[in-house]
Predict the 3D structure of the following.
Amino acid sequence: MISVLSRWEYEDLEETRMDRAKGFLADNCRKGKRGICVTVVVLGIFIGCALLGYTAFASTSHRNATLAQVTIIFRHGYRTPTETYPNDPYLHYKWPDGWGALTKKGMLQMYNLGKWIRDVYGWLIGKSYNSSTSHVQSSYADRCIMSAQALLAGLFPPDPEETFLPGLPWLPVPVHSTPRELDKTIVVKAPCPRLDEALKEAYQNDTKQTDLQSYYAELSNYTGKKISDITDVEFLYNTLEIEDLNKLTLPEWTQKFYNDKMKEIAARSLAIFTSNTLQQRLRGGPLLKEILEHMMETRTKDNWRKLYLYSAHDITLVNVLRTMGFTNELFKPDYGAALIFELHLVNGGQSHEVKYTDNGTASNEYSRM
């Protein structure tokens, strides 16, 4: 099921408005239930400073005929654990393809998401890959690059005459990636002292607001690993979740801890990276700026790209959604979750629709949140 987070429209932007946006402008969103916002801020960061704000208006129904561009940010598919803990009964378990790898289930999940994108948007982007029509950007992580490749196999299946090897219904499609230490948009791991200091402060504030010391102590005792903050809990939750999904019997102590409370703490760990305005500007802002620039191509170019794909992580989705003000709730995106930006050209202006599907099992049924 896809949730429609918001729709908004705006008229042609004057140059003076674009210039004024180079200051730090942030309209406040009224946050209630996820996706129910009276005001929506679309953020584009000019690194370190600038935000662009637009005001949302009432919902408008759109026909396919008005759709001009689609941007999709998706989390990679099901994976193996990235780490474990000393007392893990599966400490020496042989995970297929190693640690942090995309699984066969994850490959199929992403392949099916690609097929769905083809079913819904194929008429816009064409049945075959074309670099002037589509662009794919990925996180540095192998599981993200492979997720993009699996998705593209479902999105662009070749006709028999296009294949280069009889019986192989696949064609290579380029997936672009940025080294981890240079990434300022997807994983945001490029060195930034301001972000480091802001995160340190956010952890300190979280510690003051919640007393989890006894909780951490119990987990440390059971796992044999020092658990000292919410991110340690998140990593442990991720490991337990994957073992559970793979039908591995969890230790008895997990009956007390592997529950909604642990998942909520894990979600807090994701949210802490955008817990203040500076973090939102520098973590969610650069990617939103890039998306907005792509949308503006429809005003400056006769032929613009119709599809932009970003193969990313759960933190990427959380960063973007929280920066836009769509949610103030704690949530943890599932594997294969996707955030969809539709750009429509309506009456000489632009209209936008943002949709979210949580686990890669997209359908043609849309629901509002």
